Amino acid sequence: MFRTEFDDPEGIRHGGLPTYNYRSAPGGLYTRRQLAAEGLTPGRQSIAAQIIWRRGKRFAYLYRRELAVAKRPATDAQLRALMKAWVALSTCPSCKTEYGYYIPKRYGECLACFEGGAR
After folding, report:
1. Residue 85: phi, psi to the nearest 5?
2. Do 34 and 61 share a structural domain?
3. How deeply is 58 buried, as exposed, middle or buried, from its count of CB atoms within 10 A (0-12, 13-18, 19+)?
4. Based on the domain organization, do 35 and 62 belong to the same domain?
């Protein structure tokens, strides 16, 4: 069913790091994204294993779930800074209109202003 070319649970072929194929890692090992979905972060734990797929061109590190720690919530100052950045990046410098998306950097202004002043 799955290719076994990267299976190396003992870590002999891949620098001492246990390696598994896509979808074949044992339970209790999670990627950063899987931990984040549960409100956790790896903390300072070391990498427990890795998975490799796409003929060795893609990989992801795995961490132990039981050693993960809860994510710290953002402070009010951090949230204010993020909102300020969002407003700056979504406001057109030409017409001063705030949009619900980032202004494309390649144009430097909103699409309406870019198309209106066709270069």
Report:
1. -65, -40
2. yes
3. exposed
4. yes
Could you list the residue range(s) of the whole structural domain that residue 95 is in? 76-116
Two tokens at 98? Answer: 């705030």
Write down the H helix ranges in the chain. Answer: 32-37, 76-89, 111-116
Q: How is residue 50 written in tokens? A: 């890795």
Of all residues in the chain, what percent carry a pLDDT higher than 90?
Answer: 58
pLDDT at residue 10, as a whole number: 54
| Inter-residue contact 62 to 50 (CB < 8 Å) | yes
- Considering the domain boundaries, does residue 63 fall inside one? yes
What is this structure's pTM? 0.64
Residues of the chain with pLDDT under 70: 1-15, 117-119
